[in-house]
Amino acid sequence: MNENPKDPAPLKVNGVEGRVRGLGGDAMPRATVSLFTEEGHALVATAMSDKDGKFRFNKVDKGFYRVVARVPGLCPANVPIKVESSLLAKRNIEITMVAKDIDTCSYGMAK
To answer: Which one, of 31, 33, 35, 14, lies nearest residue 22 by Cα?
Structure first.
């Protein structure tokens, strides 16, 4: 079974930062957050979320990427993004983690 049947449209962001949360909205500290290129899925960088669930990648080139968040025991989140230099593209990525026994894996959204 394909856990991620359809990708959402890529989020347009300027820089890559955000927060990892649980289903109840609680911060998820120590989540492993990785940034991959869309083309070839090459690992660009990895960060650990802080006590407030926040993460950040500095100096990311323009282009299409995937942000993958992992927390032991939970379904990984896979968020397609587009990094571009635009004042309108300043958004935070909110990633909500879900338990593995739920049918669908989580996606992030921009606020």
So the answer is: 31
